[in-house]
Amino acid sequence: MKTYGLIGYPLGHSFSRGYFTDFFGREGIDAEYKNFELPHIEALAEVLQTEPTLLGFNVTIPHKIAVMQYLERMSDEAKGINAVNVVKVVRDAGGKPRLWGYNSD
Q1: Which residues are catalytic?
Q2: Which of 1, 54, 55, 74 shows its CA 20 to 30 Å from the CA of 30?
Q3: Under a CB-based contact definition with an 8 Å cutoff, are residues 53 and 71 in contact?
Q4: What is the pLDDT along the chain (105 residues), one digit of tens a residue?
Q5: DSSP class per residue in 5-37
Q6: Which residues contact residue 32 at a Cβ distance below 8 angstroms, ignoring those fewer than 6 apart?
Q7: pTM (2 decimals)?
Q8: How far apart, in whole angstroms, are the C-alpha atoms of residue 73 and residue 102?
């Protein structure tokens, strides 16, 4: 099963998990969407290590700028806005995650 998610803090107000869970079910997509409530961006390393099927995640407050330090690539739009709200996780042959950042706003 593929995994996607949301990082931020707090996430109690977010509707994303319910929205994507309904979407995946309705469309017959074998995927799950998880909330990763991270008070500090440094906890992202643990998420990447413990979630080997994580293929991407949305980013919300307060991590839209802080996440940029973990990116290997960043789109021109994200650079121009100086904020990232979508991250693609690409794993190399050894399973090491490479993060590519985008901004969809």
Answers
A1: 64
A2: 74
A3: no
A4: 999 999 999 999 999 999 999 999 999 999 999 999 999 999 999 999 999 999 999 999 999 999 999 999 999 999 999 999 999 999 999 999 999 999 998
A5: EEEES--TT--HHHHHHHHHHHHT--EEEEEEE
A6: 1, 2, 3, 4, 21, 24
A7: 0.94
A8: 9
